[in-house]
Amino acid sequence: MIGLPTETDEDVMGIARLTREVLATRGNRGGGRVNVSVAGFVPKAHTPFQWEAQASREELVRKQQLLKTALRDRRVEYGWHDAGMSVLEAAFARGDRRLGDVLVKAYRLGCRFDAWSESFAWARWHEAFAACRQDPGFYAQRSREAGEVFPWSHLISGVEQAFLWQERLRAYAGAATADCRWAPCPGCGICSNLGASVLLREASS
Ligand code: SF4
């Protein structure tokens, strides 16, 4: 995954370092190959990063190229997810009803089977957004305010917004949250909001 919030180029190069370490393992004396597949980060609704701006298409491409150079080795098979596709995913992942028109327009322009890279055409999607006077960047690359009402705010997942926001701050601080199956409850809200309980913890106690 590339393009995560707070990510530096040094972090990206960590993927290349890990690849070299795998190639150098004792088990790889036979000269095995390593497949490295990289996708751009897509902020999603109902997660601690739902407020984040996605990295721009250009920035994702730059980081893909950085890795391509660093992974130049005949024993490495390097593949990456189309950056335009990541931007599209981010737009629809946090989109609102206005994107319904974009979907229909894109279909009419010939967009089909876009999950297949050979069928995906960023230019057609761009044309569809423009024809509907919508900007994919508004949905994908815009930071949201703390109190912003989202198109998905009326959907109850059970997890409290305040908990997600705290998790976001913890992520920025590099702090891990304990797994409630084995550690005390950090209070996401699911158990009280949905009348649920952690069966694994009950089974092990
Ligand atoms: S124990 Fe329940 S409320 Fe606590 S973090 Fe786990 S799922 Fe959420």
Count of separate DSSP helical elements: 9
The low-confidence parts are none
- The chain-level mean pLDDT equals 94
How many beta-strand elements? 2
The rounded Rg comes to: 21 Å
Inertia-based shape: flat
Give structural attributes.
205 residues, mainly alpha, two-stranded parallel ribbon, 9 helices, binds iron/sulfur cluster
Describe the structure.
By secondary structure, the chain is mainly α. The protein folds into two domains: 9-155, no CATH class; 156-205, no CATH class. 43% of the residues lie in helices and 5% in strands. It has nine helices and two strands. It has helices at residues 9-23, 57-70, 83-93, 99-108, 122-131, 136-140, 161-172, 190-194, 199-204, and strands at 34-38, 76-80. It has a two-stranded parallel ribbon. Helix 2 (57-70) links the parallel strand 1 and strand 2 (76-80). Helix 1 (9-23) runs parallel beside helix 2. The longest helix is centred in the N-terminal third of the chain and has 15 residues, at 9-23. The protein is flat and about 55 Å long. The two termini are 37 Å apart. The site of iron/sulfur cluster (SF4) has 9 residues, from helix 8.
